[in-house]
Amino acid sequence: MGGVRQGSGGRTAAIRFRAAGGLLLVAHLLLVGWITLRPLDVPWMSAANLRPLAGIKADLALGGLQAARRIGEALLLLAPLGVLLPLAGGRLVVSPWGSLVRTVAAGALLSLGIELLQTGVPGQVVDVDSLLLNTLGVALAHLAVVPAARARLRRLQGREYVPALRREEASQGSTPTIPRVGIAP
């Protein structure tokens, strides 16, 4: 009986994590959309950068502090997705490599979508280096936080809950049983 309560409490916690992750994900994407897709009133614009690493080389030529600021901004823009996407997924028992690949692919596709949408926004310039840096930021954030957080959550939920979670994911639930009634003498 105690294992059932712990499992249902674990499911409630998982639902809360998924809801919080989804809400934070939507909030972050709205912020990213506002930052990257709002029209800018600028006196001049540079040409689009379609050569990989050319923008990073140009940033490094500006000097250490300016380069660190520009590269850091591109790394940090979508980095929270590396944590928020798995959090919104809500699974504790998952292949670490599969999770990393899915998260990085989603981050790369989102960054590509932003770059493509920027082609129609006044004052915004397409830059392939921002696509590379955004994707790298998602991967680094995922590697830094998600495996350790999942391991810690699995430890907190106890060893009894994890096998139950695996069994429930594979099937549609436990089979109901009928209590046995003794035969009259």
Condensed summary:
The chain has one domain (2-170).
Helix content: 55-70%
Beta-strand percent range: under 5%
Structural class from helices and strands? Answer: mainly alpha
Largest sheet, if any? none
Mean pLDDT: 85
What's the gyration radius in Å? 23 Å
- What's the domain count? 1
Assign an overall shape: elongated
Low-confidence stretches: 1-7
How many extended strands?
0
Can you count the helices?
7
Write the element-wise H/E pattern from the N-terminal end onward. Answer: HHHHHHH
Q: CA-to-CA gap between the ends? A: 31 Å
Walk me through what this model shows.
This protein has 185 residues and is an all-alpha fold. It has one domain. 70% of the residues lie in helices and 0% in strands. The chain has helices spanning 2-37, 54-61, 64-77, 81-89, 96-117, 128-157, 161-170. The two termini are 31 Å apart. Residues 1-7 have low confidence and may be disordered.
Topology:
Blueprint: H1 2-37, H2 54-61, H3 64-77, H4 81-89, H5 96-117, H6 128-157, H7 161-170
Helix pairs in contact: 1-4, 2-3, 3-6, 4-5, 4-6, 5-6
Keywords, separated by commas or semicolons:
7 helices, disordered N terminus, mainly alpha
